[in-house]
Amino acid sequence: MEKVVKIKKVSLNAEIPSYAYDTDVGFDLRANVSGKLFPGEQKEFKTGLIFEIPEGHVGLIRDRVGIVTKMGVHTCAGTFDPGFRGEVSIFLVNLSEETRYIEEGMKIAQMIFLPVIKPKIIEVKKNTKTKRGEKSFGSTDIKELKNLNKKIKSKKVSKKKPVRKISKKK
After folding, report:
1. Residue 163 pLDDT greater than 70, yes or no
2. At the topology level of CATH, where does 6-115 sit?
3. In DSSP terms, which residues pair with 73 in a beta bridge?
């Protein structure tokens, strides 16, 4: 059965999103208002749209590569549940060192839909042990980093310039 997302415009200027290509998993959301983003500033930009997301699914906000690479502007996480019926807003943060201008109608984020499961949550006294255990960020490559740091500290890292062999074609 085909899943349908119903969208209501709450602003005359709002644009109903669509997929640019048949193979796209996300569609672009546009700013419904213009605004400035100063360096380091985070600000809300409304879309003028209300979504009705199907039960068993979630709408997730994602960065658009162009706005990140060309402007240094990122989206802040956004999770839209199927029961939410308010206007979708996108929170943007300017990580560049320059003031950025967001124009009305500008594509500022993507939304993707994913099916979700809602497992039963229970409290336990102990968790099941695993090989990884409590190892966290960088746990799979931390040994290599520690060894590299030891070499650097002991100055065993070679300072010689690498020799480049040049082969002549005949």
Report:
1. no
2. Deoxyuridine 5'-Triphosphate Nucleotidohydrolase; Chain A (2.70.40)
3. 94
